[in-house]
Write a structure and sequence with these properties.
- The chain is globular and about 45 Å long.
- The protein has 155 residues and is of the alpha/beta class.
- 48% of the residues lie in helices and 17% in strands.
- The chain starts with 7 loop residues before the first strand and ends with a strand.
- A 4-stranded parallel sheet has the order 2-1-3-4. The chain has a two-stranded antiparallel sheet with strand order 5-6.
- Strand 5 and strand 6 form a beta hairpin.
Length: 155
C-alpha cells in the first residue's frame, strides 16, 4: 500500500473522456500534495516521478497498453507493434530494477481468464498484457491480486 504522507506521483493512463468523472473521484480521495500526470508516455513520466517522489502509483497498465495500441494500430503491423511494446516494457522493467528503494504500485486488470476474443486486436491485446504482467511481476518485490475487495498475495 501507499503511504498518504509521502510525496507521491500518480501516473494516470486512462485518456478517455468517459473516465474523466471516475478519475476526478479518485483524485479527490487522494491527499492534496500528491502529483497527478495523465497520458501515455509511461517511461517518460516514470523518469520524472522517480526524481520528484518517494512513491509512484501507475493506474493502469492495461489502459496504457490499450491507448498505446489504439493510437498506432493502423500505422504498424503486428510484428512492429509487438517490437515497440516490448521496447517500452523492457525500459520500464529496467527502470524498476534500477530503483528498488522506490515504492512503485502498479494497477492492472487480469483479462486472460475468459473466452479468447475473436477479433485480432483483442487477442493481440490480451496476449501482450499477459506478457507485460509477467515482465513486471518478475521485477516486483511483491504481487497482490485483488478480487471482490479481497487481497491475495501471489509473491
Amino acid at each position: 500500500s501507499l503511504h498518504r504522507e509521502k510525496t507521491t506521483t500518480v501516473i494516470g493512463t486512462a485518456g478517455l473522456a468517459e473516465l474523466e468523472g471516475r478519475t476526478a473521484e479518485l483524485k479527490a480521495l487522494r491527499p492534496d500534495h500528491w502529483q497527478h500526470i495523465e497520458g501515455n508516455l509511461l517511461n517518460e513520466y516514470m523518469d520524472k516521478a522517480l526524481r520528484s517522489s518517494d512513491q509512484i502509483l501507475i493506474d493502469s497498465v492495461n489502459q496504457w497498453l490499450a491507448n498505446f495500441l489504439l493510437e498506432s494500430w493502423k500505422k504498424y503491423d503486428l510484428q512492429q507493434q509487438e517490437a515497440r511494446i516490448d521496447l517500452e516494457v523492457r525500459k520500464f522493467a529496467e527502470t524498476m530494477q534500477l530503483h528498488p528503494q522506490k515504492r512503485i504500485v502498479i494497477v492492472s486488470s487480469e483479462i486472460g481468464a475468459g473466452v479468447t476474443p475473436s477479433q485480432e486486436l483483442s487477442r493481440f491485446f490480451r496476449q501482450l498484457l499477459g506478457r507485460i504482467h509477467i515482465a513486471i511481476a518478475k521485477q516486483a518485490s511483491s504481487v497482490v491480486q485483488v478480487v471482490a475487495g479481497i487481497t491475495l498475495r501471489i509473491k
